[in-house]
Amino acid sequence: MFQVLKSASAVILAFASIGTAVAQSTAYFFDLGPADSPLAEAFTVLDAKGNDIAKWQDGSNISEKAHPLEREWSTNVSSGKGTPPVYRTALNCDFLSSAASTQLTLAVPPGKYRIWALLGHPGGDARQIWTTEISSNSGSDSAAVIGSLGMRQLLLPATADAQGLRLSINTKSKWLLNALAVVPESEWAQVQEKIIAPHWQDASMLPREVLEKWTRLDKTPKFPEPAWSEQQLQNGFAVYHRHWAEPVWPTQFPRPQEFTAPVRAFAAQNEYEPLTFSIYALKDFAKIDLAISPLRNEQGQTLPANDIDLRYVRYMFVRPNYSLFNTYYEAPDVLMPWRPQSLSKGRNLRLWLTVKVAVGTPEGFYRGEAVLTLDNQEYKVPLCLRVLPIVLQKDQELVFGQYYRHPVTSVLAAPDDYSREWWRRKTYAELEHLRASGMNALTAGLWGNKKDGLWRQNFDTLQVIIDLQREYGFNKPQICSFNVGGLYRQYMKSGMGSHLRLIKMPPPEFFAEITEMVRDIETEARNRQWPELLYYPVDEPSTSKDSIEFMTAVMKAIKEVPGVRTYVTADPAHEGYAPLKPYVDVWCCQPFSISREQIQQEMAARPGLEFWCYPNHNSGENDHTPVNGTRMTYGFGFWRSGFRCLVPWIYQSTAGDPWNYLDSSSSDFDVRTDDDGTPIPVTIWEAYREGIDDGRYINTLEKLIRRCQANGLNAEAAAAQADLDLIENSIYVQPKYKFDNLWHPETFDVYRWMLASRIMQLQKIFQP
């Protein structure tokens, strides 16, 4: 159906329409997949049989796959918008793959080349991990595609000799390739701009004809251009420091005072602390690299290099909210593991160093340097971390949780050994990341089917999850959803609808069976000695009369089982929920909607009653830039609120391509996943940990104050309490902390230092 391009001259003719800049190209472009699948313009088909230019070592192990070029449409019921989970193009709708390594020999003239490869969107099993490594005699590159969706690109150098150019393709599981370009080194810049970049945008972002319907916003806060010094102009860049909790936008100018701001922090024992600085480019840089010299204190003691995590801020095209469409902008987001970077004139590169202070680290000022190499030009940034002789204490009555989709379920169903090990590594790495960030609770789910008159629940799977969580200290009550929706469908032959939008009152037998389901689950949980389960039947019920009537009956049915507690995601301040109040033990609402005084009064009147919060405005419902507001939510604001738990939705949300926030029915957000399965935090995640640490400083001082009072040291206790009162009275109490009426980021550290100073003062009294 498609004619194979057999010579370099044919390729030249194919590109005649693209422009004179590329018209004389001797590059080769291959669209990999079945010969009868759609073919990208100016690309030649390369199937498992090879062609006159490209020969496979053994094509018998290579499989061919193609998806329909028509968009795979799904419907977003709540918004009424139809959106595809991914947009397939002529390049990424088909691919070649194999579980066996192979070699591709290309009959091209001798010389130096750049190899560009496109891979992804394989479809199929969501638990499959696809790993593709391409090696030449000059270099290599590799990437992993997680599951059925996601696009990646590879770039590597290669050198052809008289026998052509040989590429080795290897995998740990299965490799896949959608497209391949072989471009002479001298032509790379033009070809990359004219051909590669547009195809990559189509495949990894949105096709050009789709993106034209979207509006690109500029949300960058505007600062005036500073007067650059002669040295900065000569260097071609400016290095500056801005507090980590204040975003650095991609094209934002530095403030003049930020050029001389020191890169410094202080930390207690067993605490993580960020050190950040940024580079603003006054010209283009092809390669920027970073190294850290040892940080040493006055006595010559060092912080281990492996306790300093080097990352950079990756800018992403984002939506204003995870459910919104047709507007987007570029914002600071993902904290990527460091690798050498290029940097264009007029853009920022933010470096993010997270230092871990291990238990037992001697106190003192640890100084060192970040050594930057910018196109062979060296520049040193002084760093300073003060380690304090403080062991922080956490309020163990507070719950810091996350809604969470457990990777362990994929471990149990992975299709091959490597994928199984990958999901296992992801499971352990995420639990460690959550623990190290201060989290101590995760959600759980029990799902099953009715068979022979009994509900068969996934008890053993949940047992594995609970055992793993216990290993990492997740011992708080578990929010436990169970299959109320499935039971409703059995009785009513229809669904309940989002937020109970379609609910109709079932017969009494339905509610009797709810009671029996909970009784069975509770009996099994007690036999297995699980942590307490908080029964969570429906997510976010609406305030309609039918919804509240149904929820009241469901909660009442659950409470028929002695000793259990119920959980609901609803606002207790809403008058319509009054009928629910006798049957709800844990209210979880999105803002801090009721006062601390009311919380204390109601909890005192009814033991077992608690008020939790799911601050989605600090998770998915933003662009990850309200970092300062998130720190307040998790620290000083949480302390002031009287609420007992923070449990936002969700640790990781992925819909469509995990590195494309614009495709699918909702945006991806929060923690990303590296190729090896380890977590990659976003900027806002760091604020969770820092807010929790603010709370640890507060709690440590409060306990020392009580100890002083118990020992008759009233003057010392009163002075410390005065500092706590000053901080508390400085908080602008709000239901949602995001951008407005917040302390300046530096103010947080001033108040934390007040706490640290008092802690060190009081603990000296009790030290032997």
Helix and strand arrangement:
Layout lengths: L7 H7 L5 H4 L4 E5 L11 E3 L7 E3 L6 E4 L7 E3 L4 E3 L10 E5 L3 E5 L4 E10 L8 E7 L4 E7 L4 E10 L4 E6 L4 E3 L1 E6 L3 H17 L3 H4 L3 E2 L13 H6 L1 E4 L22 E7 L1 E11 L3 E8 L2 E2 L5 E2 L4 E11 L8 E11 L3 E3 L4 E10 L6 E11 L2 E15 L7 E4 L5 H4 L5 H20 L4 E2 L1 E2 L2 E4 L2 E4 L1 H13 L6 E4 L2 H9 L15 H20 L5 E4 L8 H14 L6 E5 L16 E4 L6 H10 L4 E4 L13 H8 L1 H6 L3 E2 L5 E2 L15 E2 L1 E2 L5 E2 L2 H28 L3 H16 L15 H22 L2
Parallel strand pairs: 1-2, 16-24, 18-28, 29-30, 29-39, 31-34, 34-35, 35-36, 36-37, 37-38, 38-39
Antiparallel strand pairs: 1-15, 3-8, 4-7, 5-6, 7-14, 8-13, 9-12, 9-15, 10-11, 10-13, 17-19, 19-26, 20-25, 20-27, 21-22, 23-24, 23-26, 27-28, 32-33, 40-41, 42-43
Helix pairs in contact: 10-11, 13-15, 15-16, 15-17, 16-17
Helix content: 25-40%
Number of domains: 4
Q: Give me the number of helical elements.
A: 17
Uncertain parts:
1-24, 72-80
CATH class of the largest domain: Mainly Beta
Task: Characterize this entry briefly.
The protein is 27% helix and 29% strand. With 768 residues, it is α/β, with parallel strands linked by helices.
Account of the protein in words:
By secondary structure, the protein is α/β, with parallel strands linked by helices. The strands form 11 sheets. Strands 30-29-39-38-37-36-35-34-31 form a 9-stranded parallel beta sheet. Strands 16-24-23-26-19-17 form a 6-stranded mixed beta sheet. It starts with 7 loop residues before the first helix and ends with a helix. The protein has 17 helices and 43 strands. It folds into 4 domains: 206 residues, Galactose-binding lectin (Jelly Rolls), CATH 2.60.120; 162 residues, Immunoglobulin-like, CATH 2.60.40; 156 residues, no CATH class; 171 residues. The radius of gyration is 29 Å and the shape is globular. The longest helix is centred in the C-terminal third of the chain and has 28 residues. 27% of the residues lie in helices and 29% in strands. Strand 5 and strand 6 form a beta hairpin.
